[in-house]
């Protein structure tokens, strides 16, 4: 399976209602896309995403998601990813469950392997 | 006795929720507390993931520690996960149809556990202290409890195992109240009881 990585800027989702945002994320993830969201999810959005994900699982093509929220810290160079004017310190990665595995998460460094 | 005095002496009723990821030891801990204070267990413990697929309750648990009396309802929640894979159950020896049935029940259980969050007065968030890196689900649960202003205790479990590392848990969750335990052996359980009594005082 080949996966695509999409970097989603703040402007793409900030006008969406909470449920629309979750639908947007799931529709992309279910099409084998790994999302890096500049507009990181709040914890209540994460819980909403988990709940909605349960409703989409078919136990065959889609068995759920993996998500990681990551505090970038003050020195992170957001502009390299999303251009000037980037606002958020926390970003979220949402991926099809089978697409990624965490190899290391220590001292603020998150290492993810993208599976074949 | 006047009704005011009666109300004051009546143990406070607390819904104590057991939250956490799959196979962290939620039911083992709920059973330990149930046995200690009510001579009863809450549910069945299993190595197979998602053994608890429905919310299980043990009511009328008369808890008393350091002058605090509580009427606890222990509420053991299905483990919360962001994916459910039937092949995980097949690896544990279930047939394909049993695995599929378990997966469907687990999926429903996760939704049930999430929806029940608002009914909990105090939460224990149980983490497997032997399993790193920590799943985002743990942070999601803690963040939501914080947002809803629910008192909670982070409980790294399985500290009797040599591969457990409480220091890593404390580093990863440095802003939270952490009480490490072995639900199986009872290590740390008295400290947990003291903290439950303290947290219950915050419930109106």
Order of helices and strands of chain B: HEHEEHHEHEHH
Number of strands of chain B: 5
* SSE pattern of chain A, N- to C-terminal: EHHEHEHEEE
Tell me the name of the CATH class of chain B: Alpha Beta
| Poorly predicted regions of chain B | none
DSSP summary: helix tally of chain B: 7
Concise structural overview:
The complex is a heterodimer of chains A (116) and B (204). Chain A has 116 residues and is an alpha+beta fold.
Describe this structure in words.
The complex is a heterodimer of chains A (116) and B (204). With 116 residues, chain A is of the alpha+beta class. Chain A is 29% helix and 32% strand. Chain A has one domain (4-86). In chain A, strand 5 (100-106) and strand 6 (109-114) form a beta hairpin. The N and C termini of chain A lie close together (6 Å). The model of chain A has no long low-confidence stretch (mean pLDDT 85). Chain B has 204 residues and is of the alpha/beta class. Chain B is 38% helix and 20% strand. Chain B is built from 7 helices and 5 strands. In chain B, strands 2-3-1-4-5 form a 5-stranded mixed β-sheet, sandwiched between helices. In chain B, helix 5 (136-147) links the parallel strand 4 and strand 5. The longest helix of chain B has 21 residues, at 96-116. Chain B starts with a helix and ends with a helix. The mean pLDDT of chain B is 93.
Q: Which short descriptors sum up this protein?
A:
heterodimer, A: 116 residues, alpha+beta, four-stranded mixed sheet, two-stranded antiparallel ribbon, 4 helices, 6 strands, 29% helix, B: 204 residues, alpha/beta, Rossmann fold, five-stranded mixed sheet, 7 helices, 5 strands
């Amino acid at each position: 399976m080949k996966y695509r990585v999409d970097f989603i800027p703040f402007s793409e989702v900030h006008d969406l209602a909470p449920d629309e945002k979750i639908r947007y994320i799931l529709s992309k993830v279910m099409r084998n896309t790994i999302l890096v969201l500049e507009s990181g999810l709040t914890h209540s959005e994460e819980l909403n995403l988990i709940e909605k994900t349960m409703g989409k699982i078919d136990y065959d093509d889609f068995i759920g998601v993996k998500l990681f929220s990551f505090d970038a810290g003050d020195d992170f160079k957001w502009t390299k990813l999303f251009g000037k004017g980037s606002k958020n310190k926390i970003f979220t990665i949402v991926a099809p469950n089978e697409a990624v595995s965490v190899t290391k998460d220590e001292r603020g460094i998150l290492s993810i392997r993208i599976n074949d | 006795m006047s009704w005011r005095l009666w109300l004051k002496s009546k143990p406070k009723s607390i819904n104590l929720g057991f939250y956490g990821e799959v196979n962290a030891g939620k039911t083992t801990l709920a059973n330990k507390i149930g046995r200690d204070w009510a001579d009863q267990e809450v549910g069945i413990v299993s190595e197979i993931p998602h053994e608890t697929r429905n919310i299980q309750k043990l009511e009328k648990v008369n808890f008393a520690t350091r002058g605090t009396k509580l009427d606890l309802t222990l509420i053991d929640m299905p483990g919360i996960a962001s994916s459910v894979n039937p092949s995980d159950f097949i690896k544990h020896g279930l047939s394909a149809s049993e695995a599929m049935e378990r997966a469907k029940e687990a999926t429903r259980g996760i939704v049930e556990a999430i929806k029940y969050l608002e009914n909990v007065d105090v939460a224990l968030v149980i983490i497997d202290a032997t399993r790193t890196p920590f799943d985002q689900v743990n942070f999601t649960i803690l963040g939501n409890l914080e947002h809803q202003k629910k008192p909670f205790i982070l409980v790294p479990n399985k500290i009797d195992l040599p591969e457990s590392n409480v220091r890593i848990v404390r580093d990863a969750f440095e802003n939270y109240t952490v009480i490490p335990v072995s639900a199986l052996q009872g290590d740390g359980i008295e400290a947990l009881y003291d903290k439950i009594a303290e947290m219950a005082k915050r419930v109106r």
